[in-house]
Design brief:
mainly alpha; Alpha-lytic protease prodomain-like; 2 domains; 3 strands; about 10% strand
């Protein structure tokens, strides 16, 4: 196993700790918001509390997913267990969308039937405090998700940030209700929050499906482009047709590589093994690389910086840049 190709014990512990913190904080905030709804009878605060139920369920699922995804590669799962994180994100997006539908339906009913609001001042204080805690929690989860390459933690963090903005909208709206006395604004506000949550839920499901279907990630290709330029080896003339299978934190990278046509198998093996190790050690995810070797056919001489080449027909001029365009090309992009 190449160094850097699997999560360290400290990284696994960090992931699990972040998921546990998310679950504990989520439960506390959910209880606080339902308390606020109980004392105010606010439909907007109810929508916020309903989303907190989703937060708690998602946090519990994330805790399991982080544990399962950290399991090492085995014979039945040669690319690891990381794909389960996309299932987690898709499920979370579905829960958000379902909660949004319930909020919208209930808000429409209350908009026409009307309802009385009580103790809005205390309710606003509770929601405001919960919103601040959600913001800090969301930033923490996103940071941990990026640090440890966890899709589940990043998805939970984005969801919690969404919850924070929902709270901001609710606070502003209920403050307006207090000053104007227009109680119907409460239901209208809940309706808008529900629509916003539905949009975010569908968006999260769409991103998760993209991960499950190994949709091309331009950000990953841009990272690889930078790394390939920084760890260049003499004799590696050009890299193209790069594809990445993402299994959560573990990535499998396929690439076609143009090499000197006269290199022996042992030389090719040694150089590409060193190149793979250098790339993975500089990559923010763990993983492995698989290469398809293309001979230079003496048409890349001006782009080959190999010294003492026995078949060179033209002097070396410049290396082919490892741009995203070239990396995506399925054909050898001979200059």
């Amino acid at each position: 196993m190449i160094e850097g190709a699997e999560l360290s014990q400290s990284e696994q512990k960090s992931r699990k700790w972040a998921a546990l913190v998310s679950l504990i904080v989520g439960v506390v905030l959910m209880l606080a918001k339902f308390w606020a709804h109980n004392i105010t009878n606010s439909q907007a605060i109810f929508s916020d509390a309903m989303e907190s139920i989703v937060n708690v369920v998602a946090a519990g699922l994330a805790l399991f997913v982080v544990y399962y995804a950290s399991k090492p590669l085995d014979e039945d799962h040669p690319y690891g267990h990381g794909k389960v994180e996309y299932f987690s994100s898709a499920f979370e997006g579905g829960l958000i969308t379902f909660a949004a539908v319930l909020i919208v339906v209930d808000a429409i009913k209350k908009l026409f039937s009307g309802h009385e609001l009580t103790e809005l001042s205390l309710g606003l204080v509770i929601v405001c405090a919960a919103g601040i805690v959600n913001l800090l929690l969301g930033l923490f989860l996103i940071r941990q998700g990026k640090k440890n390459g966890s899709t589940a933690l990043r998805a939970s963090g984005k969801h919690v940030i969404t919850d924070f903005w929902s709270s901001v909208i609710i606070i502003l709206g209920l403050a307006l209700v207090m000053f104007t006395g227009l109680t119907w604004l409460d239901s209208a506000l809940a309706f808008l929050v529900g629509c916003y949550l539905a949009y975010e839920g569908v968006k999260l499901v769409r991103e998760s499906i993209g991960g499950l279907m190994d949709e091309e990630d331009m950000g990953v290709l841009e990272d690889l482009s930078t790394i390939f330029d920084s760890v260049e080896f003499r004799g590696i003339i050009q890299i193209h047709h790069v594809r990445v299978i993402r299994s959560g934190w573990y990535h499998h990278i396929d690439a076609h590589v143009v090499l000197p046509e006269f290199w022996e198998v042992s030389t090719v093996h040694e150089v590409m093994q060193q190149f793979e190790k250098a790339v993975i050690n500089n990559y923010k995810f763990g993983g492995e690389m698989n290469f398809h070797i293309d001979p230079c056919r003496r048409v890349y001489c001006k782009n080959c910086d190999l010294a003492n080449c026995s078949v060179r027909e033209k002097p070396f001029q410049e290396k082919i840049p490892n741009t995203v365009e070239y990396l995506r090309s399925q054909d050898e992009p001979i200059q």
